[in-house]
Amino acid sequence: MATSLFRLGVALVGCVVATLPGFAAEKFKRLTPDEFARQFIDRTVGDDAHWSYHFGTNATVDAMDLGKIRHGLWRFTRGELCMDFTERGKPVTECYEILVSGKNVRFLRDGVLIVEGRLLDE
Q1: Which pLDDT band, with edges at 50, 70 and 90, does 122 fall under?
Q2: Which of 78, 77, 36 is nearest to 57 (CA)?
Q3: Which of 4, 56, 68, 108 has the highest CB neighbour count under 10 A?
Q4: How much is the average pLDDT of 4-22?
């Protein structure tokens, strides 16, 4: 009897914790090009330490990855954010599906999470 009550108590606590804002599953939304422009132009997204992208008003992007700086251009193609850079004299394009939940941002390729960060500045 005591074991059953203990299990019931643990189950109830788990239900309450799961409904708290910090523990609730985040609802991520895929951004359209217009939504991306409104939310990301003149802002930086990153992880506070290892990487970041700053999106400029004139379709520029300044990227930092483990201290390496790259400058390029961003655009939307077929609903994906694409960033064009030059590396070792050759053009390189990175395209991602962008999902947002509040300040949290996910970059996906072919439905697979590549990297997750957040909007770093207001």
Answers
A1: low
A2: 36
A3: 108
A4: 42
